[in-house]
Design goal:
single chain, about 150 residues, alpha+beta, seven-stranded mixed beta sheet, two-stranded antiparallel ribbon
Length: about 150
């Protein structure tokens, strides 16, 4: 399945699109809110895995509805070494199916991750991600995907 294009501002206010990542593996993850417990654990897990992911030719990008200033503070506070994108209207979140029913019937952003191939195909989807250890899980799956291509 082809990944859906997007045009969103990063933590520095620069507009980024899916095309910016063409030719590289992309780990695109959606998360509910900056600097909350589960989201921080997930972000730090991906931060800790990022050097290995870079060695595998992958780039990590996180998306939430938080604004660019919130992303900038979250990135600095936890020394995140990857890009965070602001989807304030939720269009990209919805396009990727990362919006839906959560616990107790409330709706919101679902914790989802996608591995996108250099040609722009979604080759792996993680629904309802467990934050702890997610980075190691992505490394293992990316290695497996690359060995079959």
């Amino acid at each position: 399945m082809k990944a859906t294009d997007f045009s969103l501002k990063d933590q520095n206010g620069k507009t980024r699109t899916l095309a910016d990542f063409t030719g590289r593996w992309l780990v695109l993850y959606f998360y509910p809110k900056d600097d909350t417990p589960g989201c921080t654990v997930e972000a730090c897990s991906l931060r800790n895995a990022n050097d290995d992911l870079i060695d595998l030719g992958a780039q990590v990008v996180g998306i939430s509805k938080d604004d660019t200033e919130s992303h900038r503070k979250f990135k600095a506070k936890h020394q995140l070494n990857f890009t965070l994108l602001s989807d304030s209207d939720g269009a990209t979140i919805e396009a990727y199916g990362a919006w839906g029913k959560k616990m107790f019937g409330r709706e919101g952003i679902l914790r989802k991750t996608f591995i996108i191939s250099p040609s722009g195909e979604i080759v792996k989807t993680y629904g309802r991600v467990t934050p702890l250890g997610h980075g190691d899980q992505v490394i293992a799956d990316l290695k497996a995907l690359q060995s079959t291509r």
